[in-house]
């Protein structure tokens, strides 16, 4: 039984979801294909369509020229596991229990007893039930034990790694007892539920995953498909990996090499869709799971940049939550346009469900919204969000409504301060539309706005919890149980001799 309820102040899927088709929407008997490409830790300013001067991204330039940029597209966490749970479920990670656990913290580690609860309804399951072929290629990071793998969560097939590429046996040995590091296996490359290489060749991950993605498109061109392509790069390491064709070729060291290979990968996908005459039948969304960590010197692009936004990844600053996003669907999405309205990764599930012609009333409520008007460029389309939350683990740190973002006064700070170190315990209010870099605190000039957003924050706390106090709308993560010892994936397991 899948969960069908989401809590106190969730907006029900209604109205636009059950209304008539939009002008550019495909015919009801021709459901579109969906491809979601989301990179790992790639920053807002890391690609040319969003201002990069050091990375060459011609294929993303083409995608933006032929499609639509989203400049206020947000994830729901500044770090990967909780962010990915929201893409999968259409809900805040706090709602589905994927924001924090006693063993791993906010990011799942290898050999974890936790994962996305099997009872949660995923975007893959929604589309699979509507006749779609489904595949995930790349990084999963929502549980590495068999019951939590993507093949148990609505995906027909999986090719990639079960968690971050930097979670290697070597790192685990250095951690020791922390996060059960002694039990970490070699980084496994998997096909469905079988390990085909260990340790995985990290230099080849982007190339191999791209080959698998293209092969899936080719083999399913006669039926509707959903391809989830969570790229493994640029990742969390200080020196990301790239194949020999790209290594040492960028102007920004390993980080730039990885990004330019990601751009090549995108070109392979777009070119294959055009070659197979699937481009007008396929919505492609390109984004990132959270902002870049950035170098100690934030002016340096060597570990990515979120400029002109303020803040690093792993925080609740705009640089962590707002990610570069381009949508491409020739003949349906207006070319060379920009959407400046707030939208989020939680919107993909209800939007895809509606575009696929499903009965969205059966979904139950989710935190995301149907954003077809924003995607298709409907005149005067507005953000469907009355408010949007910025959580760090179990602490609500900021809230946005319209152009206003309020950083709430905090009695205690998490590991990553939500705005900047030494911040006074007083509200900070920014107009994040006009003040792109969050430079001017205008809380004193707008006490009524501060009061209104504070009241909204209190309602969210009651629903999603805050600092150890559970909320009425929260559900548990998947958990193997106190008496079950999770098994390392690679230990005592024969490897497949066939490598892609």
The 3D shape can be described as globular
Structural class designation? alpha/beta
Uncertain runs are 3-28, 491-500
Which whole number gives the mean pLDDT?
90
Strand arrangement in the largest pleated sheet? 8-7-6-5-9-1-10-11-2-12
The domain count comes to 2
Major sheet characteristics: 10 strands, mixed
Query: CATH superfamily membership of the largest domain, which one?
Result: Alkaline Phosphatase, subunit A
The sequence of SSEs as H and E is: EHEEHEHEEHEEHEHEHEEEHHEEEEHE
The percentage of residues in β strands lies in 15-25%
Q: Kindly, what is the distance between the CA atoms of the first and last residues, rounded to a whole number of angstroms? A: 36 Å
Explain this structure:
With 500 residues, this protein is of the alpha/beta class. The protein is 21% helix and 16% strand. Helix 1 packs across helix 6 and helix 5 packs parallel to helix 6. The protein is globular. The two termini are 36 Å apart.
Task: Looking at this protein, list some descriptive labels.
alpha/beta; ten-stranded mixed β-sheet; 500 residues; four-stranded antiparallel β-sheet; disordered C terminus; 2 domains; globular; disordered N terminus; Alkaline Phosphatase, subunit A; 21% helix; Arylsulfatase, C-terminal domain
What does this entry show, briefly?
The protein has 500 residues and is an alpha/beta fold.
Secondary structure layout plus pairing:
Elements: E1 33-40, H1 58-66, E2 68-70, E3 73-74, H2 80-89, E4 114-115, H3 123-129, E5 133-139, E6 157-161, H4 169-175, E7 189-191, E8 194-197, H5 205-219, E9 225-234, H6 253-275, E10 282-288, H7 318-321, E11 325-328, E12 337-339, E13 343-344, H8 348-355, H9 372-375, E14 388-392, E15 395-401, E16 404-407, E17 428-431, H10 447-464, E18 478-479
Parallel strand pairs: 1-9, 1-10, 2-12, 3-13, 5-6, 5-9
Antiparallel strand pairs: 2-11, 4-18, 6-7, 7-8, 10-11, 14-15, 15-16, 16-17
